[in-house]
Recover the amino acids of this structure.
């Protein structure tokens, strides 16, 4: 394409105050990786390619399905059953023949993430699951890549720019907002919850907008902020997020550590809970070095007075973990059910740095056994 | 009076907003909300006080707005 054609193609944004030829040149030399060519990925790709981003990577291991077409606007019925990344590039190449594409018809995993992400300046997360979301976030922090984040649920969407360098500091990332992945079933996905096709269109174009601003160096980014948008009432809500030092400890610090982190597992399967019986419980009490925590509500019966412990109801537990400085923590409740949940939460938080136990059968069973031994 | 905003699936449990009287901290507020909406206890969310994410018990002023925001994973 000669310069006249280039000028003509981008004329409307070249004449825009605060954009111009310099910004256009930045777009042409930029490379962007779009993870997921679905509801969010489609509008992101369309607008970035149209705007003149020079090099685009698309990673998606899925094929086009009839149920995608109400929101994944790059595809048509002829494409059903074919890989999304291939189909997307076919359409996008016609929109802008100058764009260079890298197609990855595979799933992003902890094995390929570092190699693929390293090749791009900006990463865009349009994925539809938490395993990928946390993997992408962690890999971006590890590799010092800015991350444009978007996610949707039913009628609402979230947008943010993570890990971008501002005044020599990296802005907050997803783990500053949600430190730990939810378990399968805790949060609905689109297939379970439903979504109106326009919502990813709106959120996806917001993500494309942040990407263009980031590359062109114009405007104010959604860095250290999360924007939520509700399509039913058009309300937006913006939250401030602060980058926290603790977050760094949750993110693999090296590529080797990333390879060791199993994101599918983190996001789905149950954490094993170490349960102990009354005898072991008594031994630990006698040693006197562990934190014993009653996770029942205040005033719940029976009241325990025979050994010293702290009381933190289950729902408040994660907000009060700063109190738990001991290396061993034993949680109990009435029957052992809530304490198992508590142990799970603590194990996820502390990992291998502390020993976490739950009293099997709860204080009920323990009291019964004390009576028998007396 | 504290205004509480619920986002995503939480709004299905508690409505999009409620007003809560006489609470002085986020812990107190949560206890009240859990008592009123027991289903909230099984939901995952972060809390923001006056548009700032908080991760520890936080003192609320009389006109604070508290937002409870769940993670979204759809794409």
């Amino acid at each position: 394409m000669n310069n006249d054609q280039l000028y003509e193609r981008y004329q409307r944004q070249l004449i825009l105050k605060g954009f111009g030829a310099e910004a256009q040149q930045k777009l042409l030399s930029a490379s962007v990786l779009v993870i997921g060519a679905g509801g969010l990925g489609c509008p992101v790709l369309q607008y970035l390619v149209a705007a003149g981003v020079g090099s685009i990577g698309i990673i998606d291991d899925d094929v086009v399905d009839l149920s995608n077409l109400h929101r994944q606007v790059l595809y048509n019925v002829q494409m059903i059953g074919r890989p999304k990344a291939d189909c997307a590039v076919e359409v996008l190449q016609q929109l802008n023949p100058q764009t260079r594409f890298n197609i990855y018809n595979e799933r992003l995993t902890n094995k390929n993430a570092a190699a693929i992400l390293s090749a791009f300046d900006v990463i865009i997360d349009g994925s539809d699951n938490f395993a990928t979301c946390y993997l992408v976030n962690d890999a971006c922090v590890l590799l010092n890549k800015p991350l444009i984040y978007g996610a949707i649920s039913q009628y609402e969407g979230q947008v943010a720019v993570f890990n971008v360098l501002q005044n020599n500091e990296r802005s907050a990332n997803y783990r500053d907002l949600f430190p730990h992945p939810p378990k399968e079933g805790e949060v609905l996905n689109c297939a379970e919850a439903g979504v109106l096709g326009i919502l990813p269109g709106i959120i996806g174009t917001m993500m494309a907008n942040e990407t263009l601003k980031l590359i062109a160096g114009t405007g104010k980014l959604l860095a250290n902020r999360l924007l939520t948008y509700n399509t039913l009432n058009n309300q937006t809500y913006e939250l401030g997020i602060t980058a926290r030092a603790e977050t760094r400890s949750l993110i693999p610090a090296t590529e080797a550590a990333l390879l060791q982190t199993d994101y599918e597992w983190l996001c789905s399967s149950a954490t094993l809970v170490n349960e102990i019986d009354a005898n072991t419980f008594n031994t630990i009490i006698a040693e006197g070095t562990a934190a014993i925590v009653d996770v029942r509500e205040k005033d719940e019966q029976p009241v325990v007075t025979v050994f010293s412990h702290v009381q933190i109801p289950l729902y408040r537990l994660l907000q009060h973990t700063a109190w738990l400085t001991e290396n061993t923590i034993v949680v109990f409740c009435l029957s052992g059910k809530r304490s198992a949940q508590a142990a799970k939460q603590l194990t996820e938080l502390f990992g291998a740095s502390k020993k976490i136990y739950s009293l099997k059968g709860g204080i009920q069973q323990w009291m019964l056994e004390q009576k028998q031994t007396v | 009076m504290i205004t509480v905003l619920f986002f995503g699936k939480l709004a299905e449990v508690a409505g999009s907003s409620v007003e809560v009287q006489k609470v002085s901290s986020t812990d107190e507020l949560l206890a009240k909300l859990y008592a009123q909406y027991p289903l909230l206890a099984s939901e995952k969310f972060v809390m923001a006080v006056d548009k700032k994410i908080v991760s520890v018990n936080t003192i609320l002023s009389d006109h604070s707005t508290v937002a409870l925001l769940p993670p979204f994973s759809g794409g």
User: Anything to note?
Assistant: Chain A has two domains: 3-267, 272-373. Chain A has a mean pLDDT of 91. Residues 278 and 369 of chain A are 7 Å apart (CA to CA). The longest strand of chain A covers residues 147-153.
